[in-house]
Write a structure and sequence with these properties.
CATH architecture of the largest domain: 3-Layer(aba) Sandwich
Helix content: 25-40%
CATH class of the largest domain: Alpha Beta
CATH topology of the largest domain: Rossmann fold
Shape: globular
Number of strands: 19
Strand content: 15-25%
CATH superfamily of the largest domain: Methylthiotransferase, N-terminal domain
Bound molecules: S-adenosyl-L-homocysteine, iron/sulfur cluster, FE3-S4 cluster
Radius of gyration: 23 Å
Amino acid sequence: MLSEKERSKTYFIQTFGCQMNERDSETIAGMLEEEGYTPSEKREDADVVVINTCSVRENADNRFFGQLGVVKKIKEKNPDAIVAVCGCMMQQKRVTDRIHDKYNWVDIIFGTMNIDEFPKMLRERIAEGRQEFHVLDAREQIAEGLPAARRYSFKAFVNIMNGCNNFCTYCIVPYTRGREVSRSPENILSEVRNLAAAGVREITLLGQNVNSYGKAEHLEKDFCGLLYDIAEVDGIERIRFMTSHPKDMPERLIQAFRDCDKLCGHIHLPVQAGSDRILKKMNRHYTKEQYLGILERLREADPDIAVTTDIMVGFPGETEEDFLETLDLVQRARFDSAFTFLYSIREGTPAAKAPDQIPEEIKHDRFDRLVNALNTITAEKNAACVGRTERILIEGRSARGGEGTCTGRTESFKLVNFLCDESRAGQFADVKITEAGTFSLFGELV
Ligand code: SAH
Ligand code: SF4
Ligand code: F3S
């Protein structure tokens, strides 16, 4: 048996929230590995436990404090374990104050804008034994050159910008991620080239609103220009991006779905609501008809394009009539799938102060009706795939199908299960779709 000293120190990271947080966790993992830590299978065995938090909705907050209660037990059993908390919730003073007061056994707090400081904070925590709490409110440049321990060797997230300038009135993100800051095209391209050289075939460009890439910096290159540059990189076969805001959909980007071969036929285009009155109150800067017009142009450019979205019910002041507009939009837009949300009050956002908050039971009733409408359409869209042959990037063993079953995604981002040797993960294959479920497809290799 290895002695305590010989045993390598381990880490465990728990990630909540969106792809931005997932990408940040890859950086945190990469930095920990540079410090000599290795991943732990179980959180309770880890020497360093990191919780990367999300604050987009209230239940995300509650889940975090619930998790902290559990993590405290790890600390009681192993007082040398180090607990670090980070992510969007840490950018809110009321959260860090609460941790100071009630959870003062937490060792390290850092925010979304200073993850690069984590290794130094960790070393100091170990050497000096004092708590390390540091969060930045703003950052003008994104830290470059940080390592990343990526989950897949063949597909990767590439962050192109941080922050958001849109201030949708319900949303906390502009406060937790700060103002928009874009990376330079050179840094992004060099990362993509390195990934391609390391065997990555699929890239997903990440940002809260990738369409406004470079605007704050007045960069010559806009998002579309960046997309075409990335498409030139040998080895990269598929490009995706998320998220796009419907208010910034230049014609050239729409046409890229026809003209750029490597761009996958899928767009995630959050609509949020179907009522113009509510869209205006949300500060979204488009109408229902404008949104449907964009979908029409996208489908002209690429008739097979899949469209997914985010929709919210119960925004303050939403009437039954407003909600019916959302249902009408859903029928007309025919989304391939959607993430649905119950509006949740976020302290510090303008909508939190609105007097006409919607009672929970009405929100839930609308939510159920919305989900039913969306599921029917998703099932129809999936059923229409049966008989088609799709090009799949094989991702590995399927969680649902068991041994000998792999999953992968179509270009349109639909999940497919099929019999296949796991060793083929990372390869492309043609799969004929034989059966459709509500949330995934089944097929066979051809
Ligand atoms: N940048 C992306 C989305 C970021 S948050 C965009 O602009 O589309 C992801 C989703 O969470 C949002 O699209 C929205 O539907 C949902 N969301 C954000 N704030 C919310 C709130 N206060 N209550 C409920 N859902 C919310
Ligand atoms: Fe939030 Fe709106 Fe920014 Fe998306 S665009 S992150 S919903 S403020
Ligand atoms: Fe959540 Fe922060 Fe993403 S609030 S949704 S993790 S940007």
